[in-house]
Design brief:
Length: about 425
Amino acid sequence: MPSGQLDFIPAVGTADFSAEQAQWLTLANRLGRERFAPRAATWDREASFPFANYDDLREAGLLALCVPRAFGGAGADFATYCMVGAEIGRFCGATALTYNMHICSTMWTGVLSDGIDMTPAQRDEHQARRELHFARVVRDGAVYAQPFSEGSAAAAGKAPFGTTARKVDGGWVLNGRKIFASLSGAADYYGILCTEDRGDQHPDMRDTLYIAVPGQADGLTVTGDWDPMGMRGTVSRTLLLKDVFVPDHEQLMPRGVYHRAAQTWPAMFFTLSPTYLGIAQAAYDFTVQYLRGEVPGQPPVKRRMYPTKQIAVAQMRIQLETMRSIFWRAIHEARPNPSKDERLRLYAAHYTVMEGANDIARLAIRTCGGQSMLKDLPLERLYRDSRCGALMLPWTAELILDRMGRETLYESGERDE
Ligand SMILES: Cc1cc2nc3c(=O)[nH]c(=O)nc-3n(C[C@H](O)[C@H](O)[C@H](O)COP(=O)(O)OP(=O)(O)OC[C@H]3O[C@@H](n4cnc5c(N)ncnc54)[C@H](O)[C@@H]3O)c2cc1C
């Protein structure tokens, strides 16, 4: 077998993988099949965090997948992460979605920051600070969360974050609240987006700060229930920050750089998609197995001979291939300052995956029928998990339509009057 080839079909489909991509995909597939899939029902039933999966990810070196090589990580690029994320999502959506939050924390500070304009002083500051964060991941196996949402227009990218950071001697004092903080109580560090409080009552998005708050910090509490419809293993509860002091070195990016980074690298918001491509693949895999009467532990009843089932499987495959194709193109086009054509395609790819995952899961249940949605089988969990993708800010399915329509019909700065 050539080095870039696999002996299984990954969620992104077969392709000409590099030797390294093939190696990471093989690892993700093996962990997923042997460990994550058998455990997935437990996290879902209990709405508990998949700690055992994280031990496996840590041991396999996957927590440091996107830490640059110069800092001891695997130095995987954006596209490679997206392939691996999809493969993990195929076996446990909650693990893939939370893993995405961690990986993004290493990409924002790593490969992305390298492509963002900074002054020489900012570059030096960033270089020194990220060394500390990367060492925590590589050496200690630390896990970073990414709680941005606040229940205001901030997570949609339309207003400054309400969580504030006030400069004090040697560091920052944070106050505020983050909702839907995946990895609540499980993360070693929470990458908090907040607005610098300059004392002038005029918060400005350009003053956004990105600061790591240690899970054990005084003044940080995890509150609220977590009993959602889907993605239950993400444990996305509420974080309250009350006069939390963090030293300067906890800044994940220099002052003002995050805002520029978010505008320069829109593909970063696409990183939520891989999980859902994986879920779509899982629903498709299950349907084929079920109709062939090959689901382990189930009676070998075949349902494949009915033309309606065959047509439904064909429809699912067409949708899956559409998702894979646009996903593949988007992850390889991802770069700083994409052209307008690339940006619109990126939105289209995100929408196609998020809505497509739920569509495939819906068809899977309709096609496999009543017994297939009993809770001892994974399909009903896949269906519930699949619905959550379109809700993720800043690129909810609705907001994607909003952006695509507006940005197609208006050039930047154009008005009607
Ligand atoms: C399983 C799960 C895990 C999550 N994990 C994280 C996490 O780790 N970190 C994190 O930061 N967030 C996370 N989120 C939160 C997510 O990104 C959204 O912030 C959250 O779903 C928003 O819910 P809401 O009811 O407050 O939305 P609202 O803000 O009330 O919006 C409701 C809908 O209205 C639309 N809308 C919102 N704002 C605007 C606007 N300005 N203009 C027009 N339409 C708008 C959107 O389509 C949106 O879906 C998670 C969510 C889920 C479901």
